[in-house]
Structure formats: C-alpha cells, structure tokens
Amino acid sequence: MMKHAWDNYRQYGWGHNELKPIARKGHSTNIFGNSQMGATIVDALDTLYIMGLHDEFREGQEWIDKNLDFSVNSEVSVFEVNIRFIGGLLAAYYLSGQEVFKIKAVQLAGKLLPAFNTPTGIPWAMVNLKSGVGRNWGWASAGSSILAEFGTLHMEFVHLSYLTGDPVYYNKVMHIRKLLQKMDRPNGLYPNYLNPRTGRWGQHHTSVGGLGDSFYEYLLKAWLMSDKMDTEARKMYDDAIEAIEKHLIRKSNGGLTFIGEWKNGHLERKMGHLTCFAGGMFALGADGSRDDKAGHYLQLGAEIAHTCHESYDRTS
Fold first, then answer.
1. Which top-level enzyme class is recorded in the Swiss-Prot or TrEMBL entry (predicted)?
2. Which site from 36, 251, 289, 298 is most exposed, i.e. has the minimal number of CB atoms within 10 Å?
3. What share of residues in the chain are helix, strand, coil (percent, to 5)?
4. Residue boundaries of the structural domains of the chain
5. Tens of pLDDT along 201-219?
6. Range 263-269, long-range pairs (CB < 8 A, 24+ positions)
7. Which CATH fold topology does 71-246 show?
8. φ/ψ of residue 26, rounded to 5
C-alpha cells in the first residue's frame, strides 16, 4: 500500500503538496498555502525509511535537497507545517543521519518564529513564510488561537534547541506551557480557544477530539521524550486526564465508554472521530500514572478503542 501510494504520487503529483487520487493531479490545501513544497514527500520520509524503501527515500531526499524552498510568499498553518515538515525532517535526520534534513528543519523553524510575535507569546495559527505576518483563522472564537495548534509544537521545538544549541525554540514552547499553567481552568479543563492578544480563554469548549487532541498527547510525550525527567509535563497530563475522566468520560446506554465534549457549561454526549487516538494515549500513559492506576488506564484505553471499533463496525 505504501509503495502504491508513493508510486502514484511520484507519477501524478510529484513536488505538489498532495495528490488528488481521482483527478490524478497535484493540489495544495489552505493549510500549506499556494506553494509546491512537497508536503507528501517530507511527511512520508520516516515511513519509507522504516519500511526499508530506501530507493524511494533517496528520491525524496534528492527532491528536498534541490527543490525544497521556504522563502515563498505563502501563508501556512504553523501547526501543520510543524508536525509535517519540521517533524518529518527531524525524523528523517534522526533515522538517516543525513545533514540536509537538519539544515532544512532549522531554516523552516526560523520562518515560523515570527508567528510567536504576539502580546502573550501564544502564536498565531497562520504565518506568511516570506513576510512573517501572522493571523488567526476567521472561524476560531473571536480571534483565538487553538489549543491543539499552539499546544502541538513542543516536541519538535525542544529537539530543534537540542540539535542547534540555540535555546530560542525551547523558550518559545516553554513560555506557552508556563502561561497555560498559570491560568484558571473551568472544572480543571482546558478550553480549546485562547486569545493571543488578551491571554484570556475564548468560548468554553473542551474537546479531546479536534481543536484539543494533540495538546494532551504532547504533554505525555514531552515527559517520555525527556526520559521521564520533565515531571512538570507529566503533572499537567495527569491533572488534565483526571478532569477529563471526571467531566467528559461517560458510558452510553448500550455500555460503550466515550469521551464527550464540554460546551458552554454542559456535556455534549458526542465523540468525534479524532478522539479515537485517546485509546492509545491512555495506554501509553498508564505506566507512570498516579496512585498505581496503570491497570485502570489500560482498561480505559481498551474501552475507548472498543467504542471506536464499534463505531466503524456498526456503520454501513
């Protein structure tokens, strides 16, 4: 399947961000602006390498070396570019040791830094790679930044500081964490929206699915990545999970465990598809959890995964 996908992208969409499989042509979504930055190539590198598809990996590396250029007049999603481009390049560098990936990752990170030039240091959702001008999505609660977006930079930025010796990246993401720690949280829950000008929460909507999801994942992974030394990240994770379990996790009438969403003071008994990652997260976080509750969290993870399986299995 990987080879099938790669070969067809190679034939019909090479250099484009994505491939339209039915039309058989390349395109770019608004998260990557209007430029051809080969998002599929960068995003696939680590998988190609791990699967032993080294010829394909070398093709990708060659394209990146010759064509990947970040000085384009293009407005991109800071979050998407971080997880796919910086994350993809760093993973490729760690796997292969090829210097070009590190160089490109650092170049790109420099282009994202202007997004943090806000009154609070909470970054804009989008930044123009050429001008450095940032702004937020028009639809996000009164000009707010989104928890899952500014909360899903930590791992890559910590590694950038580790690889370059420049603390600027580490400092940007630690500043976000410190700010979040200081803030009052309704019911101990993190709302999905935070205004980067005022430093106040937007509408009180909490979700472990879209808009919230990877913020929680990155707290746990920051702790794991630090060889379990970053106890602050672990504490923030544990506190968040306890509030989620208390206020959002319920059982359906048919006995399925699900994670609902908190909106304007009440629980919406719905679970988005993106929330399904939480089954794995609870399992991953079981080891090292408070009060010897590893068994409890493994069980909870299994129940969430079961609910997600059933949601497919019962749908025509």
1. hydrolase
2. 251
3. 55, 10, 35
4. 1-67, 71-246
5. 999 999 999 999 999 999 9
6. 263/204, 263/205, 263/206, 264/203, 264/204, 264/205, 265/204
7. Glycosyltransferase (1.50.10)
8. -80, 155
For the record, the structure tokens of 90 come out as: 């760093």
244-285 tens-digit pLDDT: 999 999 999 999 999 999 998 999 999 999 999 999 999 999
* pTM for the structure as a whole: 0.95
Which two tokens mark 144?
């707010």
Instruction: Please tell me the distance from the alpha carbon of residue 55 to that of residue 59, in angstroms, as a whole number.
Output: 6
Q: Which whole-number Å values give the CA distances from 171 to 48, 143, 156, 225, in the listed order?
A: 32, 24, 12, 17
Q: Could you read off the pLDDT of 112-156 as tens digits, one per residue?
A: 999 999 999 999 999 999 999 999 988 887 889 999 999 999 999
The full DSSP string for 20-51 is: ETTTTEEE--GGGTTS---HHHHHHHHHHHHT
The token duo for 222 is 């920051």
